[in-house]
């Protein structure tokens, strides 16, 4: 058995060391929860939202760009100079340009700054040593260069880590995904390799192809070489497959899997390479798979503003 638990403080993080600021529980309760899971052999991942950050105070311009780390010292107490210079809504122009995509709802952090890299690495290592987390789910990795993820991977040595790199598939004029999605899965492969090769990635390519395939188009499930057409056909050891997550399904329903085809979808990812993920609101919440010796990750489907739990287990061959 190799289960994992996932905890989320929030998508708009601010006082990163102040875990008791959450309305869902205190730092002590979180440590107790993780400890209880560890006693059962369950490992825990933290959802790392570091592309952007909410500020505690306004500067002289009236802009919210003065950050507080949540400690009595100056750890993570940053100013506007550590915001990306091209984030014009928040920056005073002293940070480096953004190395990835912009997030408009909060200041984008300058991850090229050595202080940012050190203090975020220290905070993540504190999450491991003090709180008990074992690894990471890197949120919105499109927001900064993959080389930044590599730095945090090397500085924190997680037991397991997965990145959320969500790009749109290529679609035809009929509104359906094109048969050839090599460019899409190639982008995931390139990100993994540029991030050092140790991190995994959610296989959005497989999800998009699969949810079209189960609607009477199963021919989509082989590429031109007879292999799986998603990331699992290129780097199965680095692919985390899934049917839905808290963004695509749940209350947001941004790209949901056909509700009447969920069983078929899980049958596919549970019998194919990769690390399959199962949402806990699905019929598979208590499912134990004897199909192969692989890691399965179970996710809840709560909204991004709530705690989200997941765990995985290693299947046994009977």
Write up what this structure looks like:
- It is a single chain.
- The protein is an alpha/beta fold.
- The protein is 23% helix and 14% strand.
- It is built from six helices and eleven strands.
- The chain has helices spanning 27-39, 114-131, 146-156, 182-194, 204-213, 262-269; strands at residues 4-7, 43-48, 57-58, 64-66, 135-138, 161-163, 200-202, 239-241, 275-279, 295-299, 310-314.
- The strands form two sheets. Strands 1-2-5-6-7-8-9-10-11 form a nine-stranded mixed sheet. Strands 3-4 form a two-stranded antiparallel sheet.
- Helix 4 (182-194) links the parallel strand 6 (161-163) and strand 7 (200-202).
- Helix 2 crosses helix 3.
- Mean pLDDT is 86; it is low at 1-9, 282-294 and 300-318.
Mean pLDDT: 86
Calculate the terminal CA-CA distance, rounded to whole Å.
Answer: 14 Å
Supply the helix-strand structural class.
alpha/beta
Total number of beta strands: 11
> Which residues sit in consecutive blocks of at least 5 with pLDDT less than 50?
1-9, 282-294, 300-318
- Strand portion: 5-15%
Total number of helices: 6
Order of helices and strands: EHEEEHEHEHEHEHEEE
Structural shape: globular
Give the helix proportion (percent range): 10-25%
Biggest sheet record: 9 strands, mixed
Order of neighbouring strands in the sheet with most strands: 1-2-5-6-7-8-9-10-11
Rg calculated over all Cα atoms = 20 Å
């Amino acid at each position: 058995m190799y289960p994992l638990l996932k905890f989320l403080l929030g998508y708009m993080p601010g006082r990163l060391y102040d875990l008791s600021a959450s309305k869902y529980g205190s730092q002590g309760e979180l440590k107790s929860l993780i400890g209880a899971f560890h006693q059962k052999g369950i490992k825990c991942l933290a959802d790392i939202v570091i592309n952007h950050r909410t500020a505690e105070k306004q500067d002289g311009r009236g802009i919210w760009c003065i950050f507080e780390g949540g400690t009595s010292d100056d750890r993570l107490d940053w100013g506007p100079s550590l915001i990306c210079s091209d984030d014009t809504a928040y920056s005073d122009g002293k940070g480096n340009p953004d190395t990835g995509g912009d997030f408009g709802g909060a200041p984008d952090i300058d991850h090229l700054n050595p202080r940012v890299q050190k203090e975020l690495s220290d905070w993540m290592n504190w999450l491991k040593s003090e709180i008990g987390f074992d690894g990471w789910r890197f949120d919105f990795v499109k927001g900064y260069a993959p080389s930044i993820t590599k730095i945090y991977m090397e500085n924190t040595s997680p037991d397991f880590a997965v990145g959320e790199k969500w790009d749109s598939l290529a679609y035809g004029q009929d509104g359906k995904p094109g048969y050839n999605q090599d460019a899409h899965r190639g982008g995931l492969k390139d990100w993994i390799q540029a991030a050092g090769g140790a991190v995994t990635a959610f296989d959005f390519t497989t999800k998009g192809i699969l949810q079209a395939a189960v609607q009477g188009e199963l021919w989509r499930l082989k590429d031109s070489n007879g292999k799986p057409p998603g990331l699992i056909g290129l780097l199965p050891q680095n692919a985390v497959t899934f049917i839905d997550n808290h963004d695509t399904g749940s209350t947001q329903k941004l790209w949901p899997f056909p509700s009447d085809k969920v069983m078929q979808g899980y049958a596919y990812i549970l019998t194919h390479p990769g690390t399959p993920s199962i949402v806990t609101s699905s019929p598979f919440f208590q499912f134990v798979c004897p199909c192969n010796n692989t890691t399965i990750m179970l996710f809840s489907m709560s909204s991004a503003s709530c705690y989200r739990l997941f765990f995985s287990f290693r299947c046994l061959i009977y």
